[in-house]
């Protein structure tokens, strides 16, 4: 058993090596990166995680095998330790038996008139070994008793060796099994954590795909509505009949519609017209006032419903001159230029929506 454990001792560090296997073989989950902007990027992130999980599973399988081997060897060592314990008990019994025989010999010597001084020496010995040594030195024992002394010595030596072997086997086997278990548990925990990451990434991938599909449909719908608006104008670039410029006194375009007018990364849903504070703003077409009030970042605003899904919105007013439910004609004053809401200066944000989707006002009015 010592030879077997000697060979195994070289593998004692294996458990600790396996505990760091994720780092050594690249099994650590990818470091957090910027949130994936597209489903393709998120899919690549998921694939990288799955590759790491597959590799980690291989490592976990190896760790499980090592744990099984270590457990089996521990059971073998435990069985050997049990046998050593039995040998120890038998040796102790043999020593005890000899002590009884020795005492009987001493009694016989006394009864037969043996040397009193020899008996006194034996009884005064401080230990069993000392008594045996003194007995040998006096040469007062028979050949049979001499053999019994040697047998006792051999039994005692075997008992001590068995006891030492027991301690060594238990320590090595226990350490090896603990190392293997620690390695297996750590890798299993890392894999569980990575599985949870993959589940989250897959959920995000589904959400991104749905978002992209929705945006694609919205873009297609917006294009269709823009084409409808172009058809209404006739592609001439002139103002649609019955529509008026929202600032009749004249106002330059200071910011365009869409990405051309994007600012701070935000898509611009209308056209900005620069004019001094207090400049009158008029209804661009006949309709019904459907909203008068604060429009969030748009400040004070007026919204007019023109029918057929068309709505115009006038934002950043200094004040409104229209009322809810009011019927207005093109050219009627509905408010005055201001800089309320999220604004860097006096201007009118003029927005046109077709069925709820912002469209370029240039499709309706020539600026």
TrEMBL record:
M23ase beta-sheet core domain span: 267-361
Signal peptide residues on this chain, from the entry's feature table: 1-23
Species this chain originates from: Raoultibacter massiliensis
PANTHER family, A to Z: MUREIN HYDROLASE ACTIVATOR ENVC (PTHR21666:SF270), PEPTIDASE-RELATED (PTHR21666)
Domain Peptidoglycan hydrolase PcsB coiled-coil: 91-160
Keyword terms: Coiled coil, Signal
SUPFAM superfamilies in alphabetical order: Duplicated hybrid motif (SSF51261)
Highest taxon of the lineage: Bacteria
Coiled-coil spans in chain: 39-108, 145-211
Protein name per UniProt: Peptidoglycan DD-metalloendopeptidase family protein
């Amino acid at each position: 058993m010592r030879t077997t454990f000697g060979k195994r001792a070289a593998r004692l560090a294996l458990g600790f090596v396996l505990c760091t296997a994720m780092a050594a073989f690249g099994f650590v989950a990818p470091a957090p990166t910027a949130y994936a902007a597209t489903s393709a990027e998120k899919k690549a992130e998921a694939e990288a995680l799955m590759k790491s999980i597959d590799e980690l599973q291989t490592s976990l399988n190896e760790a499980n095998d090592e744990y099984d081997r270590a457990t089996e060897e521990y059971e073998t060592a435990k069985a050997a330790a049990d046998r050593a314990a039995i040998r120890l008990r038998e040796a102790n019994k043999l020593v005890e038996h000899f002590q009884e025989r020795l005492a009987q010999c001493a009694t016989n010597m006394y009864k037969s008139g043996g040397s009193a001084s020899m008996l006194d020496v034996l009884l005064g010995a401080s230990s069993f070994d000392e008594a045996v040594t003194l007995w040998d030195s006096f040469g007062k024992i028979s050949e049979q008793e001499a053999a019994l002394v040697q047998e006792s010595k051999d039994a005692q030596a075997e008992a001590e060796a068995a006891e030492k072997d027991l301690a060594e086997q238990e320590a090595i086997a226990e350490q090896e099994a603990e190392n293997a278990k620690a390695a297996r548990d750590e890798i299993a925990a890392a894999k569980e954590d990575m599985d949870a990451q993959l589940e989250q990434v897959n959920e995000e991938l589904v959400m991104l795909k749905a978002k992209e599909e929705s945006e694609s449909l919205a873009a297609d719908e917006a294009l269709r509505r823009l084409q409808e608006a172009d058809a209404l104008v006739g592609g001439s670039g002139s103002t649609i009949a019955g529509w008026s410029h929202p600032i009749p006194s004249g106002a330059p375009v200071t910011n365009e519609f869409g990405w051309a007018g994007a600012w701070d990364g935000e898509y611009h849903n209308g056209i900005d017209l620069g004019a001094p504070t207090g400049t009158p703003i008029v209804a661009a077409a006949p309709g019904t006032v459907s909203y008068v009030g604060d429009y969030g970042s748009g400040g004070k605003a007026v919204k007019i419903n023109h029918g057929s899904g068309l709505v115009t919105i006038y934002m950043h007013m200094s004040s409104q001159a229209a009322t809810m439910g009011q019927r207005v004609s093109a050219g009627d004053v509905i408010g005055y230029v201001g800089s309320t809401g999220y604004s860097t200066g006096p201007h009118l944000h003029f927005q046109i929506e077709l069925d709820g989707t912002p469209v370029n006002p240039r499709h309706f009015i020539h600026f």
